[in-house]
Amino acid sequence: MIPQIVLAPLAGGPSTPELAAAVANAGGLGFVAGGYLEPDAFAERLARARELTDRPLGANLFVVEEPAIDADAVAAYADELAREGLELGEPRFDDDALAAKTEVALASDVDVISTTFGPPPRALVLDAHAAGKSVWVTVSTPADAELALDRRIDVLVLQGIEAGGHRSAYDDADTTDLPLLELVRAVRALTDAPLVAAGGIGDRSDVEAALAAGADAVQCGTAFLLCPEAATSDVHRDAIRRGGETALTRAFTGRRARGIVNAFMREHPDAPSAYPQLHHLTAPMRAAARATGDAERVNLWAGTALAKAREAPAAEIVASLRA
């Protein structure tokens, strides 16, 4: 039985063991994000989350394959940002230490391992099942859902266009987005597998709509960003409180992601598709912006339901969402 309310992994800052455990203790499923962490730090967070709850927990992994990128476009973008006097890093590829973090997740006392950006390697699925863990996969198109199902995964997390943060479409294309309810209906027509709807879920009515469309549960991220248990940065919290328009951008990381529109997004609408190369390029700029409270030069990931985000303990948010 899948808990009706699932905490999105929230890699890159907001994810904490305390938030995952609080959601789990309230009857949801709490995820601890592995993205961007060193494997040892990931292991420590998973262990800490388990100390705080005996309820279901999940571990999330990035599955990133080296893309074919336009190296000239990446170099031109780097030159453009350098001319603006921004603090930059070196664009490069890495797979976020997938093998090492897979070992960490398999050895941990979690119930679920989920993947983002790509389907799990077949060996991961076999090893997870052998360890008694379920495998969830995040997808944003029916085609990706079919590919994931071919890997014998247990649950599909369906990411609608409304979702905050990075798109999970496997090819980072501009033409594959579907509204959440349309995506749920399309994938439900393909499979009887459990479906978790993600994107634009901000209150109980959104949950009810997703369940009526065919989902078995919902996954929420933006709804938890203002919780005291989250490690959301001050500049990010302030931006959510102010509200505003959200849009998709590649400007910060080279992969389409939804965030609150700011100056950097407006000034760089044509950033090339190159993840994680651009993530590493802009990382120093974003770190400096967070440190100084500069909301115009940092990614402010949020979904279309950001106006419904509330400053309340995670348990209260779970209770308010449950249909």
Structure notes:
- The protein is α/β, with parallel strands linked by helices and 323 residues long.
- It has one domain: Aldolase class I (TIM Barrel), CATH 3.20.20.
- Helix content is 37%, strand content 15%.
- The protein has 12 helices and 11 strands.
- An 8-stranded parallel beta sheet has the order 1-9-8-6-5-4-3-2. It has a 3-stranded antiparallel beta sheet with strand order 7-11-10, with no helix packed on it.
- A hairpin with a 7-residue loop joins strand 10 (246-249) and strand 11.
- It is globular, with a radius of gyration of 18 Å.
- The two termini are 16 Å apart.
- The mean pLDDT is 97.
Furnish the topology, listing elements before pairings.
Layout: E1 5-7, H1 17-25, E2 30-33, H2 39-52, E3 57-62, H3 71-83, H4 98-107, E4 112-116, H5 122-130, E5 134-139, H6 142-150, E6 155-159, E7 165-166, H7 180-188, E8 195-198, H8 204-213, E9 217-220, H9 234-242, E10 246-249, E11 257-260, H10 263-267, H11 277-292, H12 314-321
Parallel strand pairs: 1-9, 2-3, 3-4, 4-5, 5-6, 6-8, 8-9
Antiparallel strand pairs: 7-11, 10-11
Helix pairs in contact: 1-2, 2-4
Instruction: Tell me the radius of gyration.
Output: 18 Å
Put simply, the count of helices is: 12
CATH fold-level name: TIM Barrel
Mean pLDDT: 97
Helix residue percentage: 25-40%
Largest sheet: 8 strands, parallel
User: Which structural category fits the helices and strands?
Assistant: alpha/beta
CATH-wise, what's the superfamily? Aldolase class I
Number of beta strands: 11
Distance separating the two termini = 16 Å
The share of residues in extended strands comes to 5-15%
Note the overall shape.
globular
Q: Kindly report the spatial arrangement of strands forming the biggest sheet.
A: 1-9-8-6-5-4-3-2
